[in-house]
Amino acid sequence: MTPLVQSAAWQTLRDHHAQWQDRNLVSLFDADPERFDKFSLEAAGVFMDFSKNHVDETTVKLLADLGRARGVETLRDAMFAGEKINHTENRAVLHVALRAPVGMQICVDGEDVVPGVHEVVDRMAGFAERVRSGARTGRTGKPFTDIVSIGIGGSDLGPCMTVEALRSSLHPRLTMHFVSNIDGAHLAKALRDLDPETTLFVVISKTFTTLETLTNAKSARDWFLASGATHADIAKHFVAVSTNAEKVEEFGIATRNMFGFWDWVGGRYSLWSAVGLPIMLAVGAQGFHELLAGAHEMDMHFRTAPLERNLPALLALLGVWYRGFFGATSQCIAPYAQDLNRLAAYLQQLEMESNGKAVTRDGTPVSTGTCPVIWGEPGTNGQHAFFQLIHQGTDVIPVDFIAALDGGHNLPDHHRLLLANCFAQSEALMMGKSADEVRAEFAAAGQHGVEVEALVPHKVFTGNRPSTTLLVDRFSPRAIGALVALYEHKVFVQGAVWDVNSYDQWGVELGKQLAARIAPELLPGAVAGKHDSSTAGLIARARAAGA
Ligand SMILES: O=P(O)(O)OC[C@H]1O[C@](O)(CO)[C@@H](O)[C@@H]1O
Fold it and tell me: What residues make up the catalytic site (predicted)?
């Protein structure tokens, strides 16, 4: 494929960008009373206002042209057709099959995978409903009160983020805990107040070889056995989610207590598979089905809508536009929802592990910047922490504001203030405040003179800073499903335009290998291997401290 910056579509966009050097968003709104209607759209219950972005109708068309020229639609169709678009691992990429309704056909190597997907979901539902009803108990016959999900990365962030997001739908008897970090403090804190007789562990690992997960699972098993339980009791308190039955059995969990999935489900795209078992345990089978239905609706929109009217494509192309032409190296995620407090962490893996790549699909260096740094915190907390930099710092940082119209609680005054803050932030980022406006404020307060002039530059907001606002009715399972699928497809489109393989993650391997080498060197009496003087010095200090 032609390097991105040499493609005709990119060069046309570059010429078009020259017009944006001195264009002000406010003046675009002044010139066009219909701007909000023209640059907003809704699909699968997600409303997207992208009018406060540096785009006009020509920009949208040119960005869509770029998407088409880079083969977004062809690659999309190949993904839905089960082709092995993850070429470095020779795998299909079919998280969309995980939310396909009964009767839809999606084939890998000539075999329809949808019936197998539903078989697992039905098994999960049977299990989850028995745990939720209290029919399935622990070894002493007591119903479970606590569920500890052990996994990391894609085997943790999706279920953890979703369970938090669906707080208002959680089962009243079951408290959910998520343990990921190999830092023993994480597991120790989770187990501190738990009763082994009423605790169920869900060990999630696609490979079942991940150091963090196996270490935590072994320690959890030791904690359970130390309570007087026998090895035979493990079957009542431990279930596994994996693609690796052999390793699961080796760990001591019988395969009848295992829920499987497939190599065509990438870790960070897996919350819709058995990896979502904690979600189903928390919100029930019905809630999980609604989550899948919301995602499927977004899939169908993504699959069929023209790029100019395609939510995921537009979100992605805006990101490409800012990354490529406005120097944006990061993207802020600002959900105005405390329940979405893990969304930024989830999207960090989804986007950065997928598109944080410096070579194209054929292995040659990329010609322009790829994935920006994804970061964020729920509003309004972010306003009192880092929004200063977004308003008055030196970089362009596009913001995605995400909110629900209904807060899902009975404190309507809080929700009104939350939404007011959300809408005010995007308005302030765009409008800014000029020096004359600052002077007028001082004058209205009766202040004039040299001291006032000295303060003016500090109080000026340049404005003209872009943001997109996503609104849903409320954070129902269906809306969360649609929202997450929206971002999954955004990542897909960006990967296609940048021509990177969004579905491998070789960049995490080197650190794992080196950690495996260093771990035995930290044991008492061990001989340290050959390292640079910094690493050797750090190892020596840890050994001296008896690590
Ligand atoms: O599910 P597993 O095999 O334990 O892997 C966990 C995570 O580790 C990674 O491979 C990266 O370290 C992720 O892609 C994955 O989600």
Answer: 353 (proton donor), 384, 512
Is 384 known to be catalytic?
yes
| 353 given a catalytic annotation | yes
- Å from CA of 262 to ligand 1 middle: 14
* Predicted pLDDT at 547: 64
Cβ distance 268 to 353 under 8 Å?
yes
Residue 395 CA, chain-centre distance (Å), reads: 23
Distances (CA, A) of 364 to 67, 87, 359, 361, 500: 20, 15, 5, 8, 10
Confidence of residue 177 (pLDDT cuts 50, 70, 90): very high
Question: Tens digits of per-residue pLDDT, 445-479?
Answer: 999 999 999 999 999 999 999 999 999 999 999 99
Ligand 1 mean position to 152 CA, how many Å? 6
**Nearest residue to 468 via CA among 369, 347, 334:** 334
For ligand 1, mutation pick of 179, 203, 210 (most atoms within 8 Å of CB): 210
Using alpha carbons only, give the angle 347, 340, 44 rounded to the nearest 5 degrees: 75
Secondary structure, 3-state, 385-426 = CCHHHHHHCCCCCCEEEEEECCCCCCCHHHHHHHHHHHHHHH
| Largest pairwise CA distance in the chain | 83
Long-range pairs, 227-231, Cβ under 8 A, ≥24: 227/196, 227/197, 229/139, 229/196
Backbone angles phi, psi at 144, to 5 degrees: -70, 145
Residue 202: pLDDT over 80: yes
Active site residue 250: no
Residue 246 Cα to ligand 1 midpoint, Å, equals 18
What DSSP string runs through 114-143?
HHHHHHHHHHHHHHHHHHHHT-SB-TTSPB
Quick one: pLDDT at residue 168?
A: 87
Residue with tokens 């990177």: 500
* Dihedral angle of Cα 312, 314, 315, 318, to the nearest 10 degrees: 150
Mean pLDDT of 306-313: 98
Going through 14-163 in order, the beta strands assigned E by DSSP cover 40-43, 46-49, 107-108, 111-112, 146-150
| pLDDT tens per residue, range 476-502 | 999 999 999 999 999 999 999 999 999
Of the candidates 87, 414, 448, 512, the residue annotated as catalytic is: 512
DSSP 256: G
Q: What's 103's DSSP letter? A: T
Q: Is 65 helix (H, G, I), strand (E, B) or coil?
A: helix
Nearest CA to ligand 1 atom 9: 153
Contact between 494 and 371 (Cβ < 8 Å): yes
Taking the centre of ligand 1 as the mean of its atom positions, its distance from the CA of residue 269, in whole angstroms, is 11
What would the two tokens of residue 418 be?
């939350």
Map residue 238 onto helix, strand or coil. strand
Residue at 34: amino acid letter: E
Q: What is the spatial distance between Cα 214 and Cα 246, in angstroms, rounded to a whole number?
A: 14
